[in-house]
Amino acid sequence: MYFNQPEKKRSSALNLDSVIESIVKTQKSSGEIPWCSSQKTDPWDHVESTMGLTIGGRIPEARKAFDWLVGQQLTDGSWYASYVNGKPDDQTRDTNMSSYIAVGAFHHFLVTGDRDYLESLWEPVRKGVDFALSLQAPGGEIHWAKSPEGVVDPMALMTGTSSVFFSIKCALAIAHILNKKRPDWQTALLKVRESITKRPHCFNISKSRFSMDWFYPILSGALTGVEAQKRIDKYWKKFVVEGQGIRCVSDEPWVTIAETSEFVLALSAMGNDKLARIIFGWIQDRRYEDGSYWCGFTFPDMVVWPEDKLSWTNGVVLMAADALFDLTPASRMFDHSVWEKSTAITF
After folding, report:
1. What angle do CA 314, 295, 326 make, to 5 degrees?
2. I want to staple 223 with a disulfide (CB 3.0 to 4.6 A). Which of 114, 132, 228, 273 is the partner?
3. Residue pLDDT, tens place only, 303-343
4. Which domains are delineated in the chain?
5. Phi then psi for 246, rounded to 5 degrees?
6. Is the link from the previous residue into 306 a cis peptide, with omega within 30 of 0?
7. What are the residues facing 246 on neighbouring strands?
8. pLDDT digits (tens, 9 = 90+) for 135-156
9. What is the 3-state secondary structure (H, E, C) of the chain?
10. Separation between Cα atoms, residue 128 and residue 95, nearest integer Å
11. What are the distances in angstroms from CA 170 to CA 9, 38, 99, 339?
């Protein structure tokens, strides 16, 4: 496989079959994976759910999900921000959502080793990443979207730009595997990283109340080592509810399973699996009777809210479990040390 996988202790305590099945049940016959049966589909969360299917060994379902996604791609390489029953809803074209297919495609390759299938996804990946980079500002940050009328919104988001950073890394890894040359992506990647590490003032400060703004620079690998640890320590008390999980936003008493699982991924990426396992353990009883995970809950009153069973929440739980317990060959996809050794990118 593309990444060398270290030996890790497998967990027999996790019952993940029901988690995988919850995504399968949500997927429509077209391949589309909405948030839940009554809600929208957005391309980013669709890919997150698809990765959950891949981890669960549901390869035909995952490829059907990719087929649906590719079929919705617009001529400029973007996707609309949301769909309802397969039809466009919010026609904003979001850079983060449009580039994330690269993450799903690379993840699928790591699990399956299927180079031919990866080749079939090259054009959608290329077009999606090129769209995102067409909205890169001179300082390196990524403008978040184009309006339905085609007007670029100059706002840049720390979470979105960090996610695009990881998408570019995965796209460069795909290009390396397929012997494609994209030195422009490498140049853009360095500029994105510089914007995150050196120019935080260029991002929308109002979004800093969201925990994703805290840990996404680390999850993406834009911040590593000592700087990553400093960022973890600086905002720990702002977002971590001891024994419960991670707040979605700093000023609300609401812990979300997705943000907690993504934070687990970020800690694991740094090499701190011990702490990651502790925090992952906090949410293991936050499940419905069918074994799928809650979206979130309030504290201290412990009200489950909302009550929807969200596909992408269960998808990222599977990704966190994979990172901690080596369920698939993609378990180290976010690992900073692995990317540092990769020949696909240069820092």
Report:
1. 30
2. 228
3. 999 999 999 999 999 999 999 999 999 999 999 999 999 99
4. 17-341 (1.50.10.10)
5. -110, 130
6. yes
7. 240
8. 999 999 999 999 999 999 999 9
9. CCCCCCCCCCCCCCCCHHHHHHHHHHCCCCCCCCCCCCCCECHHHHHHHHHHHHHCCCHHHHHHHHHHHHHHCCCCCCCECCEECCEECCCCEEHHHHHCHHHHHHHHHHHHCCHHHHHHCHHHHHHHHHHHHCCECCCCCEEEEECCCCCEEEEECHHHHHHHHHHHHHHHHHHHHCCCCCHHHHHHHHHHHHHHHHCHHHCCHHHHHEHHHHHHHHHCCCCCHHHHHHHHHHHHHHHEECCCEEECECCCCEEEHHHHHHHHHHHHHHCCHHHHHHHHHHCCCCECCCCCECCEEECCCCCECCCCCCHHHHHHHHHHHHHHHCCCCCCCCCCHHHHHHCCCCCC
10. 8
11. 26, 32, 10, 10
SS (H, E, C) 67-108: HHHHHHCCCCCCCECCEECCEECCCCEEHHHHHCHHHHHHHH
Tens of pLDDT along 183-232?
A: 999 999 999 999 999 999 999 999 999 999 999 999 999 999 999 999 99
Question: What is the longest distance spanned by two Cα atoms in the chain?
Answer: 55
Q: What are the backbone angles phi and psi of residue 41, rounded to the nearest 5°? A: -120, 130
Task: Please state the pTM of the whole predicted model.
Answer: 0.96
- The two structure tokens encoding residue 281: 């353990």
